[in-house]
Specification:
It contains ten helices and six strands. The longest helix is centred in the C-terminal third of the chain and has 15 residues. A hairpin with a 2-residue loop joins strand 5 and strand 6. It is elongated and about 105 Å long. The chain has a six-stranded mixed beta sheet with strand order 1-3-2-4-6-5. The protein has two domains: 31 residues, no CATH class; 175 residues, 3-Layer(aba) Sandwich (Uracil-DNA Glycosylase, subunit E), CATH 3.40.470.10. By secondary structure, the chain is α/β, with parallel strands linked by helices.
Length: 253
């Protein structure tokens, strides 16, 4: 015989069960701590969801301001010393391997290369080693020597990769422009694609054979861009093109 089902309301409190069944008190206590007070209720309760703390928001600027760089040295002796020792010149490397500018201060012709050659730190002079003879002959062809021109580098040091990255060119160009402004040459000769891109915005292939105007404030300096001596050693067929650039350079000097 089937017994009549008991329809006693199921909203029995957890406290009643905890007191009537002591053996389950510890288990029931866990549910109570979780927020459950009845087995069944008319209103759904998300009893397993703990109250989540409000997300803390901290105000931070959308973009951090660039680090302010100190002004460049105001005169040429201070600048040349700064180029040898300043740690914040990008990709210039240690001071012991940097090469200072050389030649005649105030020379009518200023020559700028991109960086020292691989072994220049051993001789302590720019464009030394196997490039030296070629470079000296180039100077002789236009009636100059190392003592009658001012020779400097876009970067006073050579990166371990042997190449200056595009990311550092704006800063190096800023320093080079200041360097040129302090020298105030009558002609500027840029040797190498990197220095041409940094100061003229085009590489030596696109700019060669033409006389460019290098503008620095109110000063305009006639400028020629050519291949670097180290490139000519690898591609001697380009010497004729450089000779044409040299004719443009000395025209009017």
């Amino acid at each position: 015989m089937l017994t009549k089902p008991d329809f006693t309301p199921l909203s029995i409190t957890m406290q009643n069960i905890a007191t009537s069944i002591p053996a389950t008190a510890s288990l029931i206590g866990w549910w109570q701590d979780a927020g459950v007070d009845v087995f069944v209720d008319e209103t759904p309760v998300p009893w397993l969801e703990r109250a989540k703390p409000a997300a803390q928001t901290t105000s931070r600027p959308e973009s951090l301001p660039a680090r302010m760089l100190p002004p460049l040295p105001a005169n040429l002796p201070e600048l040349t010393a700064w180029l040898k020792s300043e740690p914040d010149i990008p990709e210039a490397g240690p001071a012991a391997r940097r090469i200072a500018a050389s030649g005649l201060v105030g020379a009518p012709l200023m020559i700028m290369i991109d960086m020292p050659d691989a072994n220049d730190h051993q001789s302590g002079a720019l464009v030394s080693g196997e490039c030296a003879t070629l470079f000296d002959n180039m100077l002789k062809a236009i009636g100059e020597t190392r003592n009658s021109v001012y020779l400097a580098a876009l970067s006073p040091g050579r990166p371990v990769t042997g190449r200056l990255s595009d990311a550092v060119l704006p800063r190096l160009a800023e320093i080079a422009r200041h360097h040129i402004a302090l020298c105030v040459p009558k002609r500027l000769w840029l040797l190498g694609s990197t220095v041409s891109r940094a100061l003229l915005g085009v590489d030596d292939v696109a700019s060669r054979g033409n006389l460019h105007d290098f503008n620095h404030g109110t000063v305009t300096i006639p400028t020629v861009a050519s291949f670097a001596p180290r490139f000519l050693l690898e591609s001697p067929a380009q010497k004729a093109r450089v000779w044409a650039d040299m004719q443009v350079l000395i025209k009017g000097m």
